[in-house]
């Protein structure tokens, strides 16, 4: 049997918001057929220039903590590398080595061991909640706890409940924000990406960090389109996150999210490949054919049919209620451009029928409108 001329993500539009490894993720998705738009949601503060991290590092060396919580491998390695640049790496590891060390997961554990800092305990689930439970059960009242965090701004913290609950249990918490970030500059590609989310011009948005999620939401608010962005993400623009920590800001706002079992970039690409067609494609048995409507194309019996924007808008509207009559007025509202002449609908339907290859797929219902000629005869 010959291989199909289409890839699993053919016809789907995916936004990539990553600041790191964006090209790698974009390539993985493009190879699977997706149309990818990439714009970094955040810019990182260079570690050697991070005066806040420098001050906190010196303070911990002067007064070593009782407990250290490492949350990310890249964050811990970056912190130690920055300390090395300041001539403080040996002093920092010596100070941390005096403490009980808890790791949130295997990546953080690997970074700790590479630095000669063996962990006391780490959960199998990579769950911050389990780390919190472990510390509270052991008693932390009066203890000084340094928590290495990854990604923060003055207005947003990636683990607010975690730090707050440690403090509520009586601990003196010292948050160590590694890789602080700013939102991408105004007026550029990132603004355009956020606007396209609001206009439902993507089928999915990929997120590889909670700061990227926060940046999208903050920029949407700045642009005055927060409600539209959230409405899109709650309906037909699917949020695909690398893991539960990344998804948390969206979950709090009632946005459905999905994530792979393993928090890895390749796993996220595979997850999008597997899940997006299930979530977004509409498949209908119509006029003796199998019709599948995707973001930017239609497949008829497995053959890709490229459609102009107006024809694509018509087929989406018809497929939303397969078999039912959709009036010319309703179809006119679905067309791009906001015209008022229903002749534009007739022209778009003619082009749609030509592109599909079988004029019987779209039926005319005299004086009422158009419908997909579904095989079960729904009217």
Structure description:
The protein is an alpha/beta fold and 379 residues long. It has three domains: 13-44 and 184-280, Rossmann fold (3-Layer(aba) Sandwich), CATH 3.40.50; 47-179, 3-Layer(aba) Sandwich (Rossmann fold); 282-372, Arc Repressor Mutant, subunit A. 43% of the residues lie in helices and 19% in strands. It contains 15 helices and 17 strands. α1 links the parallel β1 (13-16) and β2. α3 (73-85) runs parallel beside α5 (106-114) and α13 (309-320) crosses α15 (343-356). The longest helix has 16 residues, at 265-280. It is elongated, with a radius of gyration of 26 Å. The model is unreliable at 152-156 (pLDDT under 50).
Mean pLDDT: 90
For the largest beta sheet, what order do the strands appear in spatially?
A: 2-1-9-10-11
The share of residues in extended strands comes to 15-25%
Low-confidence segments, ≥5 residues, pLDDT <50? 152-156
Assign the CATH class of the largest domain. Answer: Alpha Beta
DNA-binding region: 281-374
Organism: Mycolicibacterium madagascariense
Protein name: Uroporphyrinogen-III synthase
Pfam family, one: HEM4
Brief overview:
The chain has 379 residues and is an alpha/beta fold. Helices cover 43% and strands 19% of the residues.
List the SSEs and their pairings:
Layout: E1 13-16, H1 22-31, E2 35-38, E3 42-44, H2 51-62, E4 67-70, H3 73-85, H4 89-97, E5 100-103, H5 106-114, H6 128-138, E6 144-150, H7 160-168, E7 172-178, E8 181-183, H8 189-198, E9 204-207, H9 210-223, H10 226-234, E10 238-241, H11 244-252, E11 257-258, H12 265-280, E12 282-286, E13 289-293, E14 297-300, E15 303-306, H13 309-320, H14 328-334, H15 343-356, E16 362-365, E17 369-372
Parallel strand pairs: 1-2, 1-9, 4-5, 4-6, 6-7, 9-10, 10-11
Antiparallel strand pairs: 3-8, 12-13, 13-14, 14-15, 16-17
Domain OmpR/PhoB-type: 281-374
GO molecular function, one term: uroporphyrinogen-III synthase activity
DNA-binding region: 281-374
């Amino acid at each position: 049997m010959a291989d199909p001329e289409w890839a699993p993500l053919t016809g789907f539009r995916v936004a990539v918001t990553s600041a790191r490894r964006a090209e790698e993720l974009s390539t993985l998705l493009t190879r699977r057929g997706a149309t990818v738009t990439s714009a970094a949601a955040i810019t990182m503060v260079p570690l050697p220039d991070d005066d806040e991290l420098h001050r906190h590092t010196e303070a911990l060396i002067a007064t070593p903590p009782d407990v250290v919580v490492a949350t990310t491998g890249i964050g811990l390695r970056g912190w130690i590398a920055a300390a090395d640049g300041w001539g403080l790496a040996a002093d920092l590891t010596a100070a941390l080595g005096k403490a009980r060390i808890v790791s949130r997961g295997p990546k953080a554990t690997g970074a700790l061991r590479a630095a000669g800092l063996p962990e006391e305990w780490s959960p199998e689930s990579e769950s911050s909640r389990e780390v919190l439970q472990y510390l509270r059960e052991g008693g932390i009242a009066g203890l000084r706890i340094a928590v290495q965090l990854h990604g923060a701004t003055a207005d947003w913290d990636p683990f607010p409940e975690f730090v707050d609950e440690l403090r509520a249990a009586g601990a003196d918490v010292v948050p160590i924000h590694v890789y602080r970030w700013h939102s991408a500059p105004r007026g550029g590609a990132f603004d355009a990406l956020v606007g396209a989310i609001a206009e439902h011009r993507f089928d999915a948005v990929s997120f590889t960090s909670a700061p990227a999620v926060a940046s999208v939401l903050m920029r949407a608010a700045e642009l005055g389109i927060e409600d539209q962005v959230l409405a899109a993400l709650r309906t037909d623009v699917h949020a695909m996150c690398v893991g539960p920590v990344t998804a948390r800001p969206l979950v709090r706002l009632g946005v459905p999210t999905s994530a792979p079992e393993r928090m890895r970039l390749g796993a996220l690409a595979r997850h999008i490949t597997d899940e997006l067609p299930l979530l977004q494609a509409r498949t209908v048995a119509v006029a003796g054919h199998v019709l599948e409507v995707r973001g930017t194309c239609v497949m008829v019996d497995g053959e890709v049919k490229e459609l102009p924007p107006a024809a694509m808008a018509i087929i989406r509207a018809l497929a939303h209620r397969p078999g039912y009559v959709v009036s010319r007025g309703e179809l006119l509202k679905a067309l791009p451009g906001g015209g008022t002449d229903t002749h534009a609908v007739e022209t778009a339907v003619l082009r749609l029928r030509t592109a599909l290859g079988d004029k019987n797929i779209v039926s005319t219902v005299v004086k009422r409108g158009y419908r997909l000629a579904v095989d079960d005869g729904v009217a």
